[in-house]
Amino acid sequence: MFELLYIQAMRRGIFHLSIVLMMTLAGCATVPAGDTSRNALDWPGTYAAEGMSVTLRENLSYRARIGSVEVRSTFRWDSKGRTILLQNLNAAAPCKKFKVGENVLIPLKNSGKPHKDAEHLLKISESDQ
To answer: How far apart (Å, rounded) are the C-alpha atoms in residues 70 and 55?
Structure first.
């Protein structure tokens, strides 16, 4: 009787161990290879240029001020973790897409190429979380 209980317990233990191992390996597959702007830079904070400021927060929300208009919404990262898209930003805004660099947001066209006419937004303060 005890031998049967021991064998059943061992089988359950091996089963649980295999589940934990599979979950661990699956988690490793989702880690991006190499550093990205999202995981390697201290990107939360306030960035500004002439007539525009953007505050990015770790919870993926932002506050943008363009002239006297203020917008609060969310942003999303691209799949490579290099650029962000400010959602719900007025169509009159100079741009909605930015490449995130070390202490700088670089305005991008919809095509992903840098905006030649738009100023880079420089980081002026750390996140106020």
So the answer is: 11
Architecture of domain 37-126: Beta Barrel (2.40)
Helix (H, G, I), strand (E, B) or coil at 94: coil
**Rounded Cα gap, residues 15 and 62, in angstroms:** 45
Residues 114, 115, 117, 122, CA torsion sign:
negative
What are the C-alpha distances in Å from 72 to residues 37, 50, 66, 85, 98? 22, 19, 12, 13, 17
pLDDT in tens, 86-100: 999 876 677 899 999
Q: Where are the domains of the chain?
A: 1-30, 37-126
- 51-81 pLDDT, tens digit per residue, is 899 999 999 999 999 988 999 999 999 999 9
Q: Is the pTM of this model over 0.90?
A: no
